[in-house]
Design goal:
Elements: H1 3-12, H2 14-25, H3 28-44, H4 55-78, H5 101-115, H6 119-129, H7 134-141, H8 145-167
Protein name: RNA polymerase sigma-70 factor, ECF subfamily
Organism: Neolewinella agarilytica
Keywords: Sigma factor, Transcription, Transcription regulation
Amino acid sequence: MSQVEFFTEFNRLTTLLNSFAYNLTKNSEDAKDLYQETAFRAMTNRDKFRPGTNLKAWLFTIMKNIFINNYRKKMKANTIMDNTDNLYYLNSGSNSIDNAADSNILIKELTGMIDLLDDSTRIPFMMHYQGFKYQEIADHLDLPLGTVKSRIFFARKDLKAQIARQYGKLRVRS
């Protein structure tokens, strides 16, 4: 496509490009800027357009990509980065400080609940928890595979019941 043909086609699509720019920006000044940027990029990259393809779609894609890139730049510019020392917890939503006390207490309580399980279910459960596969547990304990699976199932069921009694109607995932 010659330079003259390209400019003629571009001029024919000017009204559509301006309308599309306004639909994207919802602001006439921003739409004019977007159209100008699109025209500039289309003219400078005219050699990248393949003749026989859809010029309108190529121009609309350029415009849409410019709009998206500008939008992302605006969003980044609106993000406030606070590099000051956090001496007064300005960025925190609360004044609490996280520590491991809650989780340590919970782990101790869960360990106690596991210790209350019968050995026939506790041992396969703990082996499974430690990463042993069902077959490895069955071989180690000299039990059938189905027995190992059912004992682990019953250990989980007993632990869920203990947790429900201890903590009330908390939701326990399966």
